[in-house]
Amino acid sequence: MAPQSTSDLSPGEIALPRVIAFANQKGGVGKTTTAITVAACLAELEYRVLVVDLDPQGNASTGLGINARDLDATIYDVLLRGEKLENCIEPTAVKNLFVAPANLDLAGADIELVPEMGREQRLKKAIDTVIDQYDYVILDCPPSLGLLTVNGLTAATEVFVPIQCEYFALEGLGQLLRSVDRVSQVLNPTLEVRHIACVMYTHTTLADDVVREVREHFGDKVCKTVVPRSVRVAEAPSHGKPVTSFDPSSAASKAYREIAKEISGGTSNRPR
């Protein structure tokens, strides 16, 4: 799959392939759910999508139906044992969607990477070996600024930030923006936050205030679509499916599909 030429782009489109780090230093804000669901929605649009699970909890893997305990290789082996990324990629039940899974072996990676040469670049080098096979690579970063997240931000072409519609989420957003700025200064000069999505929205004054404040500060970076809180979203991972497969007609599924269209410029994939 050849990279998309800039001369072939419509207004608002960005050249493929794209590596998007889904990141937020505050936990419990719907980051992993948003990462795997947006990935599934992009796959529905006929893009080939790889999800790289960088969180030791492995929720992106289990949320896509992968039991990483039964696998011979995971992203841990790629980062610390020199395994080829292609050897740990697994297909999912969603057409065009693949995952490089994680398990608890990854919990010590932040410490184990410290003495390694080129420690911040390991993920980027691994992704570079398979990037021509995918249109989008989605990185589910852990909720911290350790070496796993730094690897994700170094490998990414852009950052997607999901934020919960409550006050403390704004503090987490500020911390992340400072982290992205530090990484861009030292390791990845073109890195920027390209999209911010308000998720887990409820019809309350507080939620409305948070959405309004985020839009006032970040303008066009904020996705037009707001994702409502939904019990169906919470139930989907226990079935090993993104909510778009578990309950395709739910309000949250429809919202995530609209966000995927915003990311992709409103188009489906086409031969290149």
Describe what you observe in this structure.
With 272 residues, this protein is α/β, with parallel strands linked by helices. It has helices spanning 31-44, 59-63, 75-80, 109-112, 122-128, 147-155, 167-186, 205-218, 231-235, 243-246, 251-264, and strands spanning 18-22, 49-53, 90-91, 97-100, 136-140, 158-164, 193-199. It is built from eleven helices and seven strands. The model has no long low-confidence stretch (mean pLDDT 91). It has a seven-stranded mixed sheet with strand order 3-4-2-5-1-6-7, sandwiched between helices. α5 packs parallel to α6 (147-155). It has one domain: Rossmann fold, CATH 3.40.50.300.
Short précis:
The protein is 38% helix and 13% strand. The chain is an alpha/beta fold and 272 residues long. It has a seven-stranded mixed β-sheet with strand order 3-4-2-5-1-6-7, sandwiched between helices.
Strand content: 5-15%
**Which series of helices and strands comes N to C?**
EHEHHEEHHEHEHEHHHH
Question: Which sequence of strands runs across the widest sheet?
Answer: 3-4-2-5-1-6-7
The number of distinct structural domains comes to 1
Tally of DSSP β-strands: 7
Main sheet record:
7 strands, mixed
Please outline the helices and strands.
Blueprint: E1 18-22, H1 31-44, E2 49-53, H2 59-63, H3 75-80, E3 90-91, E4 97-100, H4 109-112, H5 122-128, E5 136-140, H6 147-155, E6 158-164, H7 167-186, E7 193-199, H8 205-218, H9 231-235, H10 243-246, H11 251-264
Parallel strand pairs: 1-5, 1-6, 2-4, 2-5, 6-7
Antiparallel strand pairs: 3-4
Helix pairs in contact: 1-11, 5-6
